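This section describes the prediction task in plain terms. A model, or a person checking by hand, is given the sequence of a single protein chain and must write out its three-dimensional structure as a string of tokens. No templates, partner chains or ligands are provided. The sample shown here is typical of the held-out split.
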Amino acid sequence: MSTQNEGAPSSTQAPVADEQAQQPDFISLGLPASMLETISKLGYETPSPIQAKTIPLLLGGNDVVGMAQTGTGKTAAFALPILAKIDTHSADIQALVLCPTRELALQVSEAFQTYSAGLGGKFHVLPLYGGQDMRAQLRSLKRGPHVIVGTPGRLLDHLERRSLDLSNLKTLVLDEADEMLRMGFIDDVETILQKTPADRQVVLFSATMPQAIRRVAEKYLKKPVEVRIESKATTGENIKQFFWLVRGMQKLDALTRILEVERFDGMIIFVRTKTATTELADKLNARGFNAAALNGDIAQAQRQRTVEQLKEGRLDILVATDVAARGLDVERISHVINYDIPYDNEAYVHRIGRTGRAGREGKAILFVAPRERNMLRSIERTTRQQIPPLELPSRDDLIAQRIDRFKTEILETIESQDLAFFQQVVEELCRERTLTEVEVAGALAYLQQKDRPLRPKPEREERSPRSQPEWTSGADARSPRSRNDSDRGPGAGRPPRSHSAGPEAGMQRYKVAVGHQDGVAPGELVGAIANESGIEGRYIGRIQIYNTFSTVDLPAEMPGEVTELLQKTRVRQKPLRITVFDGEVPADEMTGGFRKPRGRNEGGPSGRKPPRRDKPGFSRDDGARKGPRKPRD
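The expected answer:
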């Protein structure tokens, strides 16, 4: 194998100029313009080392062996060149990605969907893994996906059934090959390789290169180029790291609470996109914090002024993207907050390296949505540290901090200002209206603080079940339910309503573009809406499923960004395309297959109860065979 080597910086203090000099931009890698536009919208400004080395090789048709740790950006390294060569007019399976676990398969599948935004909705990717309903997978395969992402066991099942046609396969990716070897899948991987065309391109990624993996590479890859990315980045011992699980509270509200209670000097808040820097900075300024945006679109002169303001203490908070903050060395930065979790673990290391400078202690807080827990574990493996959860300040803590700060402002004003005129006005008012000084002082305090009340609104647990939720970027839909209800749809345990019954108070009825003909069940809608929008299960109301669409009751006046997320959320491989329901149900929707809403325990479209789920490791659908053969997924 020919080899390309790239060493990462040995510490977070590495000079930024060298870092940028080693890496080209995405434009120079040869990707098409539509893909470059998508990458830019996602906030990617420069490729990671594995992307910079691998993408041109794959676009050139080379087989590649990539040695890189999880979290170095390798998914984009193979997904982007695959998408650049996809023929969306063909119904053939053109690329196959093998992953060791269903979690990774889903993560890679979502990445393909995200990166394909510039293909105009014509691209289809399908994850295949054990534990999923085989009939649903067979239906999805008939729709002609362009890319399959799956685990070895389930892929072999489909090959044995002849439901998976790889005769026109162009690219095969083995992701985390050493992990598949460790889990005992290497024989299945070889069997799959043998069933693919001889002229396909093969990409193998592995964190290590044991002899068995090297043998597979030598046997099945044609003159592969080896790309080796050494990961040596470590976090400073003087940086205390915490994560907060995004649950039940809007990220902005949680951030506000942290900012009010934490004693910080200077702070950087990292987000993924340029647009998010300005939006979040504006919202923080509106809440009384001194914040500014820093991104790649800001002119160099303005950037320098902003950094100088931070150094001099005239600015407290920077909201920045990864690239914009590179090379930033400001000693007074005591806190780093990862408002958006980075896709690249190396980026996390560089982010938190902005604090804890010159021997000072630093603190790093990472916001993690429930669906991003795997990314948290990956960061922990990279940093070789377990990151503990952060206890968010309570409402009482917040009130105490606000009162203490308000008292301090009053005392400082008394000491520093000539108040004789205002004291005279207060005395006259007290005499004229027979008021006490305390009553007047209370009224003045209210006028001063009415836009920033000392006591925040009661938290959700003090509200009625149908009050407006706090909006988050992710939530565990089952957390508010009891264990007995965790697998039931929103209609379970309640008598079904007629389709003409309106939503409950505070709720709005929406229409989504999946129905009986797609085989959708209420539980799938609940899971998709909860995971993508962050609306907890308790706020998802009645669901009714018709032939070609369904209706879902959701909280009224949802923020625009939540509605936009749900527009693109996919269920049964179809986008929801959510709209406000106008109340009209065509006759053929009712007579041609209308059914009352069912809970998840009441089966799929056929109405039959699902088969009993066996113990892990012994169910065919979980990717394992009975008998002495080793388990698959």
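For orientation: Residues 239-393 form a domain with the Rossmann fold fold (CATH 3.40.50.300).
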